[in-house]
Specification:
It contains one helix and no strands. By secondary structure, it is mainly alpha-helical.
């Protein structure tokens, strides 16, 4: 479970960065 949680967090981090770049 821990491993999956870390993977999901990584994906969310990338998506968040992409959103920030788009907003800028």
């Amino acid at each position: 479970m821990g491993s999956v949680d870390q993977s999901q967090q990584s994906c969310y981090s990338i998506l968040w960065l992409f959103t920030l770049v788009r907003y800028k």
